[in-house]
Amino acid sequence: ERDVATKPIAVVQKGLDCCGIETGPIEWAASDNKAVYWIRTHDNDVPDSCCKNVTINCGKNEAKAVPEKTRVHDKGCETALYDYLTDNLLLIGGLGVAVAFLELFGLCGSFMLRRAILHGY
Questions:
Q1: What is the helix (H) or strand (E) element at residue 30, kind and residue range?
Q2: HEC readout, 49-95
Q3: Which of 37, 61, 87, 121 could bond to 116 as cystine, CB 3.0-4.6 Å?
Q4: What angle (nearest 5°) sits at the alpha carbon of residue 30, between those of residues 24 and 31?
Q5: What tens digit of pLDDT does each residue of 43-57 get?
Q6: pTM
Q7: Burial level of 83, CB count in 10 A (0-12/13-18/19+)?
Q8: 91: left (phi > 0), else alpha (psi -120 to 50), else beta?
């Protein structure tokens, strides 16, 4: 049951090399955090998916560690996602334009097919 909630978070944190949402690892120790179960059961720990080199229990006591001496990513996932999107904006825009042209091509093809059916070609 807990895997359903933690697996997507782990995938995002590993994929974007980030930890937490906005402020980094300290969020995993904040009492106003939405991850209430984690905070109750893991005092000052972060998920292992926050670690730079993921190993079992690598996030132990890392939630309030000094950022320069930490084994976890110090960037929040919101910032990491923004950076990823801005770094790949040209590719994303190019794919969007390509899809638009494919849609337009399909629309023109459907009009030509309709015309051929109506006129008996």
A1: none
A2: HHECCCCCCCCCCCCCCCHHHCCECCCCHHHHHHHHHHHCHHHHHHH
A3: 121
A4: 160
A5: 778 888 989 998 888
A6: 0.68
A7: middle
A8: alpha
